[in-house]
Fold this sequence. Notes:
This protein has helices at 2-23, 33-36, 61-73, 87-98, 114-126, 138-147, 151-164, 167-184, 187-190, 194-205, 215-230; strands at residues 41-47, 53-60. The protein has a single domain (41-234), classed as Orthogonal Bundle (Phosphatidylinositol 3-kinase, Chain A). The protein has a two-stranded antiparallel sheet. By secondary structure, it is mainly α.
Amino acid sequence: xxxxxxxxxxxxxxxxxxxxxxxxxxxxxxxxxxxxxxxxxxxxxxxxxxxxxxxxxxxxxxxxxxxxxxxxxxxxxxxxxxxxxxxxxxxxxxxxxxxxxxxxxxxxxxxxxxxxxxxxxxxxxxxxxxxxxxxxxxxxxxxxxxxxxxxxxxxxxxxxxxxxxxxxxxxxxxxxxxxxxxxxxxxxxxxxxxxxxxxxxxxxxxxxxxxxxxxxxxxxxxxxxxxxxxxxxxxxx
Length: 237
């Protein structure tokens, strides 16, 4: 009926207005992935058997923008994830990606370097309250590498663990692994081997506050990430 339609519309617009007020002024840095993905994300599309594009999931806008730009412009750039960008420009990028309503979707990268993009991507991941692989899965991912020496079995165990992650973490992890595998495959030119990439990205992907002051624990986490990068093609969406 018209009355019920009006009631629904009133409820819908009120809910949206409330949501807009809640989001207004909210950034993405230091915000939980499950929260930020609600208002600052882009879809991951994959082609189906019929040739049509289907939305598989969502990843943060900042990750998609940086990932695409770096894949297009920086795969052979030496030390791409090690060298610093401009502190001033990185601060500007953080403001852009932190600001509604677009959260950086319209960024063209004019005036910014690939090193700026690489740095802001790492900063975002390192500022997540929970790493890409959440704290509750920390020991499980490390245990597989520590106790299982058979490569095939290890791959299977990681496939099962990744499938158990919350969808937003699963999608982000698989996207990041794909990105890092692309750079690892060009390590002769960019000097970014899987081992080097693992040491750089480990804090934002597989870390735990209990081990923040225990550098000896970083090695195992880095080895886990190195393995995931090396065998990334077995962990597809």
